[in-house]
Design brief:
Structural class: alpha+beta
Shape: rod-shaped
Strand content: 25-35%
Helix content: 25-40%
Low-confidence stretches: 101-109, 114-146, 280-359, 407-436, 817-825, 876-891, 992-1005, 1238-1243, 1297-1334
């Protein structure tokens, strides 16, 4: 907003001052030119009077004139041209730019920070009080100046350039100075000559310009004397002659040039002329021509304008500025960012050269301070003795003429009250008056005399009389419908009313409104209308009527003058934020309008400034389209002004925000940005690559992969899946891999847990632990996946895309361990980089780019960012100044020929720390070092290939495949191990693996097992033994970790070896993911990397095959030798396979047992058909006899019962391998289940002894073949199932999980399987686990303590006719199955429980003792001879003896009845 050090009253007074013409002789001009000044320029700084002046009005009242200023101008006989005026005003605005060093003062108004540096602000403003001190300090600051000096300069020049007109006299000359030098030969004659010249100019018809106030113009004769060269006595004598001719009040002797130009050069004389000479006046009559506007760009005015909002702090001459910048005040940084300062617009260069020469030319070099005082005294004498008396006399004459012509008896001044207090004639509106602007009054017309008197009174500050005259003239003009004259009277009447001392009446703003409307609409004179607006706006602003002032300023904007519209719109915008409630958005909107008009007027710097000020209001408020428009305009204007950094920054803002523009508009923005950016890069081609805004990079999504890409499958070869960037991150899987690696490392280091274990990380992402420096290997690629996102709706083409990095070589094998060999470098011999030639991103696409580096030396690598060429695909639109038809064919995309090279940094923020209290209470982030790998020395690299690896198996199916291990590095590797959570799935075989067929194929003649030809037999044909340690299941080792049996345990560089591997389908149907982790080491020990790993995930789909249930019972067959340790094993085999698998039938080819104590002896098969075939949904039942091993050994005993023609040696690989692995998995599973329920404490020894009697620990292996039809070809599949029998009478299944088994069995079978004792169920339900009860084994376990068997003839014949009683001897065999002494009680008394039993039992009785007591030692067998007595024939059950037993050292707590498993029936026949 326009701010002035002077008040509004002073501004209005200085806008209309008495004009004095100056006519100088050539000699006089030569004298003044010694100071590089004309006469008018010489006296211009001294034209304001420093003392009060007194004059009398027509009523002879004393009138005081304060601070009077006069204007002395050369006589110009040609009126100024409109083009010249426009040119002058344009240049004035151009050279006036925002002053540097202003202290910005910021307050908060609503959501905005506003700078209030307006002196017109009143303390009544609500938000003013808290900033009062700041404002007072600002007003007294030496740095305070106008906020819009260009507007003040424009306004001052505009008022000075107003051409004189006939309807008003304010711009008419009142007097004329005639200046002659004393050095002339005849000065008096020269005065006469000049006087005649002035008279001719004023009164001759040849000259219509300039205008003169009255015909009798005051002539003032000035004799100019050059003290340095002239004779003073001659000057005095001439002056005396002048006083006699013209009077003492009509002439003056002015002595100047007291100092010679060759002396006193070191004396510092003030230069008061420079501030005036910088403002060109139209009266100088320099030869302007209408032409293109000139834009000046120099180092004094071309400043860097910050575009990033309100965040800049400035410091001016040691004064700190703690406030933020507001659109009203722009910060200026150093000139280093400016253009080179030369004029890049060359038009009218001569004008600027002359201005520059004036700027640097010293003025007043021959003048002393005494000469300054003389000039000042001269102006005072001229005003006091010449000008004011002349004006006073003229006012009296005009007053007398008006009184006489009007026929009034009193003076006009005394009659004012009467004229205004009488009846008023209603004023017609402007619209009601006809257009009579062409009406001209003669010079002697009384209406013009009133106006002339009014103007004279106004010029000498007699505003009350001036108002009266203006008001009278206004009425006369309106009556005559002379609208131009009426508008002028209304305008000056309003100003006079405002300037009257004491403000007797309010400011008549409606006068000004009528005058403006008349000038603009009727008279079509925009200059006069503009003057009205400028005056009225200042008056309204002084009265804090900012809204009315803004409306007035906006009303005069039009299409005829862009410069005027721009200035007025800018002032209106400033009015909006000076209101009581600041209207910030209106301010910003009108600043945009002003910037647009500035741009049209060629004022690029002012346009840029307006847009920048408005931007700080719109920024961050969500008005994206407005922000885009402003930034686009700022970019273009900055580029035009060669402020290329600003232009790049502005276009960058457009591109990086989430734009809502159309695709075509975004494409235009992008092409503009590329064009500007290209110009910037051409200025400094060797400088660092600047940052590009597109495309977006999601730094946190950056992934880094160490190693080669995965090889594709080659025929039957399938490479290990390992890790690749194509795999999605899964935290659960990642944790499983970590556990596997930790397990194998712990096994290798022979410890159970590692305190500082860190897993090997091949792929780093946002979820991985990136706090450590990752390890890369020399000659192995490092792949960085960068996530790009194109936010625009137009495609982007990135070319020559590569990584930006920094490398510091280090030797990790040296004694200093990491000694730096040389400084940081970017040489290609150390790091090789792979570039992507073309990378196309479609509209709004997110796309990953994978870039590779190839390290060739050890050291520290730092990946800094990406560097690329940014361009677009060719389109039909044409950029300003760039022909888009110049296309460049690169690859498969056609660019529009415009691309720029730059970079983007990859800066990844680490995870937020939240461990300590300090970290929780503050915001701290840990490091993320995924882009800072350490390159270590060469390591071996293993690749694993799986040959003929199946994707589908039957449950329990055995399949032989081959695994190829290949060393693709230059280092030998050793110590290859594989670890898996499912060790029962695969095996590499034991020591006998080489005996198996080496090249199996899917035919019926080859088997994965070791077999020998035999005849089908039900009797065990082979018994062998094996140690579990042979198959990796020793007591101290972990079966999950398996050594790979490499030849010589070393794999040389480039070597490969194929090893057989057997697979067994998991027992549960479905899809299984089985993880293999291969571990290997280098022969040489490395300081950074101890081992390497390779991952593989196998996916196997299993389908149902067989469901096997087995139960073992003790046999009742005992003999006197005590050889009664045999059992019966019942095996139920059901074909639960579905027809989808294509299995025709299953053949049970062999059943083998495995135990340390038991072995299968024979098969008890009632069927004659030895071949056991099971079709779909068929079930078979096997009964096998098991006997106890005679010699207790630590090894497991294998016994095979063969049903086919070939015997499978079950104690060798792979049968034993899978058995032991599944046995271990079963033990591990049951152990984890038991560990949950052992909180009650261990059972005591007695219970344990009883429980041990029922334990069997017999394992059954069922081996089968399946016949499958596939592609019209019959295949034979092999497999095996395992059943672990733990206790007598307890059913076991091949797959223990009920959920999986329930799918296999039918509902009825499942209900049978799930039947439990109701007492046990209730006990488990109601009894809490924490309750302590006496440990008592269940009843079925006591039946295993003593084994009883009756020996008797099955058929006994007796002649009851001969003897009525039949006595049969019966032997009762008792066997102690426990390891302790047992007390046994045999009770022969019948226990009648039902009438049926009475009927049966009542027919025979036992003879002899009814009760026997005996003690059985451990494993002792005892016989007891009994006698049964029968009275008639029949079938009898002898199994009535009740056997009670208890441990010898226990009380009767465990005494219970022993029940026989089967009835003992005897047939009594009569002979």
């Amino acid at each position: 907003m326009a701010q002035r050090v002077q008040s509004v009253q002073e501004f209005l007074q200085d806008s209309f001052v008495p004009l004095v013409a100056a006519l100088c002789s050539e000699e006089a001009e030569r004298v003044t030119r010694k100071n590089n000044l004309g006469f008018c320029e010489l006296i211009k700084p001294f034209c304001r009077l420093t003392s009060e002046v007194h004059m009398r009005d027509p009523n002879n009242q004393l009138h005081i004139i304060k601070n009077l200023k006069i204007a002395v101008n050369n006589i110009i006989t040609q009126p100024p041209q409109q083009g010249a005026i426009r040119k002058l005003l344009h240049d004035v605005v151009t050279v006036s730019q925002p002053a540097e060093g202003l202290v910005a003062n910021v307050i908060t108004a609503g959501d905005y920070d506003l700078n209030i540096s307006d002196r017109s602000v009143k303390a009544s403003v609500p938000w003013y009080s808290s900033w009062k001190d700041t404002l007072m300090g600002l007003n007294t600051s030496t740095f305070y100046s106008a906020t819009t000096p260009w507007f003040e300069a424009y306004r001052e020049s505009f008022l000075q350039c107003m051409p004189a007109s006939d309807h008003e006299f304010l711009n008419h000359y009142v007097a004329c100075m005639l200046v002659v030098s004393s050095s002339e030969p005849e000065p008096v004659e020269q005065f006469l000559k000049l006087s005649q010249e002035q008279h001719q100019i004023q009164h001759s018809n040849e000259y219509s310009y300039p205008k003169w106030f009255i015909p009798n113009t005051l002539k003032y004769y000035v004799l100019l004397h050059d003290v340095s060269v002239g004779e003073e006595h001659r000057a005095d004598s001439i002056y005396e002659e002048m006083k006699q001719r013209y009077g003492t009040q009509g002439c003056y002797l002015l002595k100047i040039n007291s100092r010679g130009s060759n002396r006193g050069a070191d004396e510092q004389i003030p230069d008061p002329w420079s501030q005036y000479l910088q403002k060109n006046s139209i009266q100088t009559q320099e030869p302007y021509e209408d032409g293109p506007y000139t834009i000046i760009s120099n180092k004094n005015s071309d400043h860097f304008i910050p575009l990033d909002g309100l965040g800049n702090d400035s410091k001016v001459d040691g004064l700190s500025n703690n406030y933020k910048s507001h659109p009203l005040q722009l910060d200026h940084t150093s000139d280093s960012s400016c253009f080179d300062g030369t004029d890049y617009v060359k038009a009218n260069a001569s004008l600027h050269e002359s201005k520059k020469s004036n700027t640097w030319t010293p003025h007043g070099t021959c003048l002393t301070l005494t000469d300054h005082d003389r000039i000042r005294q001269f102006i005072q004498e001229f005003t006091f003795r010449g000008l004011l008396p002349h004006i006073e006399k003229t006012i009296r004459q005009l007053n007398d003429q008006l009184i006489s012509r009007k026929g009034l008896s009193r003076s006009l001044f005394s009659a004012t009250k009467k004229w205004f207090s009488g009846s008023k004639i209603p004023e017609k509106s402007v619209n009601e008056l006809k257009s009579t602007s062409g009406l001209l009054y003669p010079p002697e017309a009384p209406e013009l005399q009133i106006r002339k008197m009014a103007d004279l009174c106004f010029l000498v500050q007699h505003y009350e009389l001036a108002y009266s005259c203006y008001h009278t003239a206004k009425k006369d003009f309106l009556n005559d419908q002379a609208m131009l004259y009426a508008a002028g009277a209304l305008e000056m009447a309003a100003v006079s009313a405002f300037l009257q001392p004491g403000a007797p009446r309010p400011y008549p703003a409606h006068y000004m409104d009528t005058a403006i409307q008349t000038y603009r609409d009727i008279c079509k004179n925009m200059m006069l209308a503009e003057r009205c607006v400028l005056l009225s706006a200042e008056i309204l602003k002084s009265q804090s009527k900012y809204s009315e002032a803004a409306a007035l300023l906006i009303r005069l904007t039009s299409e005829d003058s862009d410069l005027r519209s721009a200035l007025l719109l800018e002032q209106a915008a400033h009015c909006f934020i000076n209101m009581k409630s600041p209207m910030v958005r209106k301010f910003a909107f009108h600043m945009i309008l002003a910037g647009h008009r500035y741009s049209k007027a060629g004022q690029k710097k002012h346009a840029l400034r307006c847009y920048c000020q408005a931007m700080q209001v719109y920024k961050g408020k969500g008005w994206s389209l407005a922000e885009d428009h402003i930034n686009f305009t700022i970019g273009r204007q900055s580029f035009t002004l060669r402020q290329l950094d600003n232009a790049v920054s502005a276009f960058r803002h457009i591109l990086i925000n989430e734009s809502k523009q159309t695709a075509a508009q975004q494409g235009a923005f992008l092409r503009e940005y590329l064009y500007v950016y290209k110009n910037v890069s051409q200025l400094s081609p060797d400088g660092p690559s600047p940052q590009l805004p597109l495309p977006y990079i999601n730094s946190s999504a950056t992934r880094v992969f160490f190693g080669h890409d995965r090889r594709p499958a080659e025929g039957e070869k399938q490479a290990a899946t390992h890790i690749s960037l194509d795999q999605e991150y899964d935290s659960e899987f990642s944790h499983q891999w970590k556990e596997l690696e930790e397990q194998v490392v712990a096994t290798v280091n022979k410890c159970t847990a590692l305190s500082n274990f860190q897993p090997t990380q091949y792929c780093l992402n946002r979820y991985s632990d990136n706090s450590r420096f990752p390890l890369g290997v020399v000659e192995e690629p490092i792949t960085v996946e960068v996530a790009f996102r194109n936010p625009l709706k137009v495609p982007l083409l990135l070319t020559d895309l590569s990584l930006l990095w920094k490398f510091q070589p280090k030797d990790y094998n040296s004694k200093n361990n990491g000694e730096t060999k040389e400084v940081e470098t970017c040489g290609k011999d150390m790091i090789g980089a792979e570039a992507i030639s073309e990378f196309l991103m479609n509209s709004e696409e997110t796309k990953m780019a994978r870039l590779k580096l190839f390290p060739h030396q050890t050291g520290e690598l730092h990946i800094l960012g990406v560097v690329y060429n940014l361009g677009t695909i060719q389109s039909t639109s044409v950029l300003d100044g760039v022909d888009s038809s110049v296309g460049l064919q690169t690859g498969k995309y056609i660019t529009n020929g415009m691309s720029v090279r730059g970079q983007q940094d990859l800066e990844i923020q680490g995870p937020r720390l939240n461990n300590t209290k300090e970290e929780k209470t503050s915001i701290k982030y840990g490091p993320d070092r995924r882009l800072d790998p350490i390159i270590t020395e060469e390591m071996p690299l293993l690749e694993v290939f799986f040959i003929n690896f199946p994707t589908g198996l039957l449950c329990g199916e055995i399949r032989k495949t081959y695994v190829e291990f290949m060393n693709v590095s230059k280092c030998p590797l050793t110590g290859v191990k594989v670890v898996s959570k499912r060790p029962e799935f695969f095996t590499f075989g034991g020591s006998s693996a080489i005996l198996t067929p080496l090249s199996p194929s899917a035919s019926e003649h080859c088997s994965a097992y070791k077999t020998i030809v035999t005849h089908s037999t039900s009797v065990c044909s082979l018994t062998s033994s094996a140690d579990s340690s042979d198959f990796g299941v020793g007591t101290g080792s972990q079966p999950e970790v398996i050594d790979v049996p490499l030849p010589d345990s070393v794999l040389l560089p480039g070597a490969s070896v194929q090893l057989p591997m057997w697979l067994r389908g998991p027992d549960e149907e479905g899809v299984h993911e089985i993880n293999f982790l291969f571990y290997y080491e280098s022969i040489r020990k490395h300081s950074k990397m101890c081992h390497r790993i390779l991952r593989h995930t196998a996916v196997i789909c299993t389908s149902r095959s067989l469901a096997i249930r087995a139960t073992v019972y003790r046999s009742n067959a005992l003999d006197e030798k005590g050889d009664g340790d045999n059992m019966l094993v019942f095996v139920d085999v059901e074909n639960v396979n579905t027809s989808e698998a294509g299995v025709k039938e299953f053949h049970i080819v062999q059943v083998s047992s495995n135990s340390k104590n038991w072995k299968l002896q024979e098969s008890i098969n009632l069927s004659e058909d030895k071949d056991i075939k099971l079709a779909n949904r068929e079930k078979g039942k096997l009964c096998l006899k098991a006997v106890k091993c005679k010699h207790l050994v630590e090894n497991y005993t294998f016994a095979d019962i063969v049903f086919g023609s070939e015997q499978i040696i079950s104690s060798t690989s792979p049968c034993a391998d899978f058995f032991f692995r599944s046995l271990y998995s079963d033990l591990k599973r049951t152990h984890s289940q038991q560990s949950v329920h052992t909180s009650q404490g261990a059972l005591d020894s007695a219970v344990r002894l009883i429980q041990k009697c029922g334990e069997v620990d017999l394992n059954i292996i069922v081996l089968w073949k399946a016949y499958v039809v596939e592609d019209n070809k019959q295949l034979i599949l092999e497999g095996q199932h395992h059943v672990v029998l733990h206790a007598v009478g307890k059913e076991a299944v091949s797959f223990p999980q009920k959920q999986g088994f329930k799918k296999i069995l039918g509902n009825s079978d499942w209900e049978d399987l799930e039947q439990e004792s109701p007492e046990i169920g209730l006990f488990n339900f109601f009894r809490p686990e924490s309750t302590s009860v006496p440990a008592r084994p269940p009843l079925d376990q006591f039946s295993n303590l003593i084994k009883a068997s009756l020996r008797y003839p099955e058929i006994f014949s007796h002649s009851f006719h001969q003897k009525s009683l039949c006595i049969v001897p019966v032997t009762l065999l008792l066997s102690n199955c426990s390891q302790a002494d047992v007390d046994v009680i045999i009770d022969l008394r019948h226990k009648a429980t039902s009438p049926e039993t009475l009927e049966i039992h009542g027919s025979f009785t036992w003879l002899g003792q009814t009760q026997y007591k005996l003690q059985l030692k451990s494993q002792e067998v005892s016989s007891l001879q009994l006698k049964a007595c029968f009275v008639h024939t029949g079938v009898y059950n002898l199994g009535t003896p009740r056997v009670f037993a208890k441990l010898s050292d226990q009380v009767t707590l465990f005494e219970t009845s022993q029940q026989n498993s089967m009835p003992a029936l005897i047939i009594i026949n009569n002979i």
